[in-house]
Amino acid sequence: MLRVRVIPSLLLKDLGLVKSVRFAKERYVGDPINAIKVFNDKQADELIVLDISATKRGSINFELISRINREAFMPLGYGGGIRSVDDVRRILGLGYEKVVIDSGALDRPELISEAASACGSSSVVACIDVRRDKAGRHLVYDYRTKKTIARLVREWAEKCAHLGAGEILLNDVDREGTFAGYDVSLISDIASRVTVPLVALGGAATLEDIKKAVAAGASAAAAGSMFVFHGPHKAVLITYPTRETLKETFG
């Protein structure tokens, strides 16, 4: 098992996959089942599936995510539309290893502790979407309203860990889809404040970016565009580094 987990992150919208830039300019990139089959062949460490349409409507397409899980040979995490412990139990019951809770916890923080108590902290990932304000402060961002809320990311990360989240997924909206690299100063700050593993997301272009994120304190790194687009014209090509390349890069 590699010490550094390198995790593709897929955005579901309705029945298809999309990629966005800073949570805008969504572009259709293919069928989720086909993408899962490619990541199977490439032997991806694990996979995160985030359903942005479920987040907006507040309900989960259990039929679709069940089909996705049946095709996957790697550990899966799912986020989107999770509002209750019943949702958590049902997702884990489908075979998912982790649930990723974001907006549900913004509305009701105790959802994290309820899910951790019912199913174990190791199954609960708190996703924190981050944007900067004009003063440069890192604030929590709500995808549904497209606005930041008056909550510092560092304080929310600490609270999520205290509530029982076994992992933090730190999603940098300002860098999402930009290939600008991770914000290592943000990663370092949040990693120093929580005792649970931190997964960096947003901005990766190369494995070197992932190395920098890990050096800054991330336990793992997730990426979307890096594994979906290829070449200067960003042609859609689902890919993932070979085991040999990962070993050479991370040891």
Task: Describe the protein's architecture and organization.
This protein has 251 residues and is an alpha/beta fold. Helices cover 34% and strands 29% of the residues. The protein has ten helices and 14 strands. The longest helix has 11 residues. The radius of gyration is 17 Å and the shape is globular. It starts with a strand and ends with a helix.
Mean pLDDT rating: 95
CATH H-level superfamily title: Aldolase class I
Q: Quaternary state, please? A: single chain
How many domains in all? 1
Secondary structure tally: strands: 14
Keywords, separated by commas or semicolons:
251 residues, alpha/beta, TIM Barrel, two-stranded antiparallel sheet, 10 helices, 34% helix, globular
